[in-house]
Amino acid sequence: MAIVIIRQDGKIDLWKEALLTEAPDLDVYSYYENHPKDDIEVALVWKHPEGSLAKYNNLELIACNGAGVDFIFEDPDVPEGIPITRVVDTKLAEDMSEHVLAVILAHLKNLDIYKLQQTQKVWKTRDYHRISDFKVGIMGLGELGSVLAKDLVRFGFEVQGWSNSPKSLENVNSFAGDDELSGFLASTEILVCLLPLTDKTTGILNKSLFKKLPKNAFVINVARGGHLVDLDLIEMLDNDHLSGAGLDVYHQEPLPTSHPFWQHEKIHMTPHYASVSDPKFVVPQIVENYRRLKAGKSLLNEVSRDKGY
Ligand code: NDP
């Protein structure tokens, strides 16, 4: 039984070394080296080249190297009928939570405006906001969203969340399903998207949704670029319905230099690095799943092919 690592970001050696340090008995190959394709039973993937998984006739597990599996379902040649697992990791959730908190606090305290003023040597005070001024609404109360919700509550924010099924988190108002989306939006002043990208959530951050938010709401998308209709966001920022947006993810990454987001004064961008799988913390669960697969046991963090997340 052997593992192949397929990714295109130059990090294969890093992951290979981490896997072999954790479990020296494993046979681990890079997709880009000569390797016995028929021996490969596990593919560890992150944004693999389309069609690459179909080359392995004896594949038994697709292990996603991150939390979001949308890129796997976008590959029309992804083998059917074998399990897909993803990363669920405390550090990944904590990192995401810290990122979103930083974006929210920067907005409350006008840090981006002051940075701009500094470059122009402008001394001008701005009214600031307090944590108690805003209700944060999180779309997606899963592994990442629920940790963020708890942290925001700890910081003193009023917090509510929206998910497929109702949740019971202390001091977090839970909304669920399409019927409760409008009510959730009507009372959300800072909206954070932490949904998986699926057929149902593609383009969900659009004009009609933004209109249901109160005037001056702030939007944070740290999930996937495909959730957002870019021009709808720009329109709602330009007509002052929304006060600003913090974006970490984009339709095309890196974002083309011609894209209007780059120049927009109300958009605060980070380059899809809110939280990243760290081999140190993630490799043990991948090895554990490899062992479980060999022993015929149920796998950790399996994705539902039906739901797409
Ligand atoms: P989970 O699968 O744990 O949680 C997803 C949540 O979204 C669940 O609460 C689920 O509801 C809810 N949901 C899914 N579909 C719908 C829908 N149609 N309507 C309402 N709610 C829905 O995912 P994670 O929290 O682990 O990750 C979320 C996403 O974050 C990832 O898919 C990835 O795209 C993104 N991400 C971004 C990173 C970055 O650096 N920017 C890093 C890591 C992840 P229910 O609980 O009822 O099933």
UniProtKB/TrEMBL annotation:
SUPFAM superfamilies (UniProt xref): Formate/glycerate dehydrogenase catalytic domain-like, NAD(P)-binding Rossmann-fold domains
NAD as UniProt keyword: yes
Keywords: NAD, Oxidoreductase
Pfam entry (one): 2-Hacid_dh_C
Chain ranges of the D-isomer specific 2-hydroxyacid dehydrogenase NAD-binding domain: 101-274
InterPro entries: D-isomer_DH_CS, D-isomer_DH_NAD-bd, NAD(P)-bd_dom_sf
Protein name from the UniProt record: Glyoxylate/hydroxypyruvate reductase A
Phylogenetic classification of the source organism: Bacteria, Pseudomonadati, Bacteroidota, Flavobacteriia, Flavobacteriales
